[in-house]
Amino acid sequence: MSPLTFLDKEHSVAAPGYSRWLVPPAALAIHLCIGQVYALSVFKTPLVERFDTSETAIAIVFSIAIVMLGLSAAFGGKWMERNGPRKAMFLSAVCFSSGLLIGALGVATDQLWLLYFGYGVVGGIGLGIGYISPVSTLIKWFPDRPGLATGMAIMGFGGGAFIASALSARLLSGYSSLPADAVPTDAIVPAFVTLGLGYLVFMMFGVFTVRVPPAGWAPPGWTPKEDHGNKMMTTANVSADNALKTRQFWFLWTVLFCNVTAGIGILEQAAPMIRDFFPGEVTAATAAGFVGLLSLFNMAGRFLWSSTSDVIGRKPTYMIYLGVGAVLFFFLATAGNTAVPVFVLLACVIISFYGGGFATIPAYLKDMFGAFQVGAIHGRLLTAWSAAGVAGPLIVNVITDGQRDSGVEGAAAYRPSLLVMVALLVVGFVANLLVRPVSDEHHEPADDAVYPAPGDDAARRGARQPAATTTTAAPTTTTTTTEARR
Amino acid sequence: MSTTTPHQDAGAAHEPAKGTAAKLAAAWAFVGIPLAYGVFETARKAAALFTG
Description:
The complex is a heterodimer of chains A (486) and B (52). Chain A has 486 residues and is an all-alpha fold. Chain A folds into 2 domains: 18-209, MFS general substrate transporter like domains (Growth Hormone, Chain: A, Up-down Bundle), CATH 1.20.1250.20; 225-440, Growth Hormone, Chain: A, CATH 1.20.1250. Chain A contains 18 helices and no strands. The longest helix of chain A is centred in the first third of the chain and has 54 residues, at 55-108. Chain A is globular and about 65 Å long. Chain B has 52 residues and is an all-alpha fold. Chain B has a domain at 19-51. Chain B is 69% helix and 0% strand. Chain B is built from 3 helices and no strands. The N and C termini of chain B lie far apart (74 Å).
């Protein structure tokens, strides 16, 4: 027997007595590590000096990693659903850690392509698989509070950047034998190796801790919301392939794309933007503080807004993100330069909506498509993130540069791009309004349980789940509830 | 007709196993402490916004 069989889905079913509250820390163990990608900028200057190359050449490392994140999340989702979270987390840990180690080899041997391949390609696969790996499992453990559960995990992605940023700076200064005012080029390799090995250990905690719920498991006393008349929460299931054929998927893709594009547009330009809005009033240190504050609101929004969506519903939550967001963007464009506190307050709330949008989308997908392959569907939806990652900065940079070329300076230079973001958010708002329950024709056969037994492909092929024999009045699986509706 | 549902069987998982509280505390501390460190460091930087 292979020593790795413990990774199989069949071997990660929770034993009696397992607490579902152990799953969020397992998910956080993955997301807190892979969030490091957003702190890669700490290594930017040392890498530029080490390779004696341009900033653009080093920025490509981040771009490759993000593209690979999107691709691996999109294409690895179904594999992840088949093999379970433990194997996916293991693969993510190995890839992400190896990516850092191969990257260290590239730096040590002055081979930039090896850094691209290691951190960008291999590490990027670890990012994508790791990002989606706990989502489906969390939703299955927390069908009563999916927003809270996924919010906790996806909050970790933001928190991971905080940890890595502080830790990387300490590692670089600690390992460097160069003078304190010199760029610590000699510390990149040991820092990468330390991070690679440290993250491997940390992520393995997630691998060993995560469990999938037993077939038919549901929280005590919980019944699907649809039974209470909420048609925006299905108890049926849609496969990842079928989801792509629905309008709902593409409306939600548009919703995520618009929300993320607008948020990235501000995040990417935050420091220069506040200084241009208040020339002579905001120093570089203050601007850096503003960026830090935005990061905190980004992280907090992921948890708070996503949790709130469990109470007020997913569609109303996105109406707030996109509708109120559009109004706030409009005020930012037209009145953002009246006072620093006004600007900061508007930007912070907007960024909390940006983070909330990321964290709430898995629960929205679960509401629309069921829990069956929600991880794979989420992975495919994340292509909207990749597209927004290109569109957001492009819109702001191209329009703002064009304004400056025309002699417009200060806050006025940003106004047209911010108004474009208002229009984008309105488009997203309309797309959200158009989201309706998925038509029955896309649903999986009623025999498929919301929580199919691990590796229970037989269930997918039509073998009836024992839940069909239940005599309980509280329907807790698709089998029972779907039949009850007939 | 059986009156035992799979959910009730699986419901055994609701009965916390011995040592669950300790496991939960350790697991949350394992991820919570680094996260708190990261948040603290970021908040320290963000404080520059208010201190100038």
